[in-house]
Design a protein that fits this description.
The protein is α+β, with helices and mostly antiparallel strands. The protein contains 9 helices and 10 strands. The structure holds zinc ion. Pfam families: Peptidase_M23 (PF01551).
């Protein structure tokens, strides 16, 4: 198959255009800013701006995930707040003093810098000032769901950012907390399945491009479960993946499950799921018109992508799968000992 076609199909698979594949940076050290501390700050900013705390949290989280994807170009300005802005954006493009901290003159020159902690200075290294600057820029348009989306659009001019931030906000609202790190192995541990590391190897069938994911071989009908807390972003047929589901987590990763024999009928696009929730069943659908199946042995193709703002990069899910599998075995053992 021609390379451009493979790329176009890959874009369909992920529901978006894919950039070149890259291995993920090693899991970053524990982010500063305890959830309780951040939760309090979001509540405070919600009171000041009229947004919901979940919306403020989602704005901050989106910026945090962009930094995770591009740490070099988006260095941390405060100690935990996500927002990255240049000195010119902060103080105003025409401001002769690019280090201006005076809220009144920053406002005069159209900078986004604000004083959120009440010390009289709009300080680009203060978490609260950063948070307030971002939240108040978005809140200018109002706080209804539509107004919020408009505010986010005006801030980023990027439809993906609008989608992400609304997804994060929904996750915080549904689960009522910031810590949504839980995980599950995509099929029940202790059942009959096998997988190995195949990152970047040529596909055994199709041969269309290097393999972006891990294949978990199992019999038809084994439950396929969500690996994370997330929002269903895509659900339906695509030419390669067959019946597939794509789930977005609060860390801005896209979890892709392909070749299912079917979906849990109660699920819809836009719904939230938690780790371990059955989303469908192992099958062999794909590589043809809707309904095509049986062109290869049944397996789950599991892929994971990180959103970098305008593009998504696949990274090797194998180490995560091993980690989630181990964690689940451990939890099972602990349970049986009780
Ligand atoms: Zn695969």
């Amino acid at each position: 198959m021609k390379k451009w076609m493979a790329l176009a199909f890959a874009a369909m698979l992920a529901g978006t255009w894919l950039g070149p594949s890259a291995h993920a940076a090693p899991a970053d050290a524990k982010e500063a800013g305890a959830p309780e501390q951040r939760r309090a700050a979001y509540g405070q900013m919600a009171l000041l701006t009229g947004l919901d705390w979940e919306q403020v949290a989602a704005l901050d989280q989106y910026e945090r995930t962009l930094r995770k994807a591009r740490p070099k170009t988006r260095p941390k300005l405060g100690s935990w707040a996500g927002l990255y802005v240049s000195t010119e954006q902060w103080s105003g493009m025409t401001n002769p003093d690019s280090d201006d901290r005076d809220p009144a003159s920053i406002r005069f020159f159209g900078g986004i810098g604000r004083d959120g902690d009440g010390d009289g200075k709009a300080d680009r290294s203060s978490d609260i000032d950063l948070l307030y600057a971002q939240a108040s820029a978005v809140a200018r348009f109002g706080s209804s769901p539509d107004d919020f989306s408009i505010g986010v659009w005006e801030f980023y001019h990027n439809q993906r950012a609008v989608q992400r931030i609304n997804q994060f906000s929904l996750l915080y609202r549904t689960f009522g907390r910031l810590d949504l790190d839980g995980s599950a192995f995509p099929v029940p541990v202790g059942t009959d399945y096998s997988y190995r590391s195949t990152w970047g190897t040529a596909r055994g069938w199709g041969g269309h491009r290097t393999h972006e994911g891990t294949d978990i071989f199992a019999g038809y009908g084994l439950p396929v479960r969500s690996t994370c807390f997330g929002v269903i972003e895509n659900m339906g047929w695509n030419a390669y993946g067959g019946w597939r589901i794509g789930i977005r987590d609060a860390d801005n990763r896209y979890h892709y499950y392909a070749h299912l024999s079917g979906f849990d009928k109660s699920l819809r696009s836009g719904m939230t799921v938690e780790p371990g929730r059955t989303i469908g069943w192992v099958g062999s659908s794909g590589y043809g018109k809707p309904g095509t199946s049986g062109k290869f042995p049944p397996h789950l193709h599991y892929g994971i992508y990180r959103d970098r703002g305008m593009i998504e990069w696949a990274f090797d899910p194998y180490p995560l799968l091993r980690q989630w599998e181990k964690a689940e075995y451990k939890a099972k053992k602990a349970k049986s000992r009780r």
